[in-house]
Design brief:
The chain is α/β, with parallel strands linked by helices. The chain is built from eight helices and five strands, in the order ααβαβαβαββααα. It has a single domain, classed as Pyruvate Kinase, Chain: A, domain 1. The longest helix has about 80 residues.
């Protein structure tokens, strides 16, 4: 067993670790709450887009975003990871999802867009092709302009004759404890995919209620100006921007939740280990005192003789 001085030094080190992990847990909690607030703030905007979308949904198949642009099976993957570690299995889960999807689609030629240093570093090491890297600008304070810059690049790449499919990999935030890695086929759009997205944002009951209201109102003949096609061409890029913005917020909320849980576990483990070391220190100290008392008693008895 280590002596009392060594145990005391280790206890001090563990307590310092406890303080650091507790601070990081609190910071991650605040950042996670901020990401949740951002997700709630955009709901009113998405509600307006939903209402317009329901009116023109019959014309969706006419959009250029609903058809593959070429016969070449080349895809563009956008991987959203973190810029930092210490977030439990957050990055590992995304990479596992990428690996699984890659095994299921072995006939695809793949290029990458990296959002997060953890993936960009991996791609550079494996000599894969990165079309763009947004990792340096990917911060905790996500704004719509940053999301729009990536989204518009994605749309441009899809409308070019180079890529036939766009897939986004990220962690979907369910609650503080649970985040699920997702491989979402982002483009080309499908009516079912957009409906699922709106149901995910608002819930199935709210979406069905809006559909029912639309069907009742549609009994009256309305004229949409300038035309459904023109409204559709303006609306869909905005919808795609908002969907990608939502993915970034979900990813950030998942990252902060994972880091918060990781730091909480580290803090609790540090506290348990410090308690064990304190008990060991007290036992060592008690043993040393008992030994000293025994030596004194023995010395006194020997003097009597």
């Amino acid at each position: 067993m280590a002596n009392g001085k060594e145990i005391k030094r280790r206890i001090k080190s563990i307590k310092n670790t406890w303080k650091i992990t507790k601070a990081m847990e609190l910071i991650s909690t605040v950042k996670m709450k901020k990401a949740q607030d951002l997700a709630l703030e955009k709901k009113s905007y998405m509600r307006s887009i939903l209402e317009v979308f329901l009116w023109i949904s019959d014309s969706l198949s006419e959009s250029k975003f609903f058809s593959k642009q070429n016969i070449w099976w080349k895809t563009l993957w956008i991987i959203i990871t973190s810029n930092k570690w210490l977030c439990w299995g957050y990055n590992i889960n995304v990479m596992k999802k990428v690996s699984q999807y890659m095994k299921e689609n072995t006939d695809e030629t793949i290029d990458f867009i990296a959002v997060g240093k953890r993936w960009s570093q991996f791609v550079w090491r494996t000599w894969n092709t990165i079309v763009a890297d947004f990792s340096h600008d990917f911060s905790d304070n996500i704004d719509l302009y940053f999301a729009k810059s990536i989204s518009r690049l994605i749309q441009e790449k899809f409308l070019s004759p180079e890529y036939s499919k766009i897939v986004v990999f990220y962690n979907h935030y369910i609650n503080t404890i649970k985040q699920v890695p997702v491989a979402r086929e982002f483009l080309p759009l499908t009516k079912v995919g957009i409906e699922m997205y709106f149901k995910q944002v608002f819930g199935e009951d709210f979406y069905d209620e809006k559909v029912q209201t639309r069907n009742e109102v549609k009994k009256t003949d309305y004229t949409i100006e300038p035309s459904k096609a023109e409204v559709l061409n303006e609306l869909l890029p905005m919808l795609i921007d908002s969907m990608f913005y939502d993915m970034l917020i979900e990813a950030k909320a998942s990252e902060h939740s994972s880091r918060m849980i990781a730091m909480k576990n580290a803090k609790d483990n540090a506290n348990k280990y410090a308690s064990k070391l304190t008990l060991a220190y007290n036992k060592a100290r008690q043993a040393a005192i008992t030994k000293e008392v025994s030596e004194i008693v023995s010395w006194v008895e020997s003097m009597k003789e």
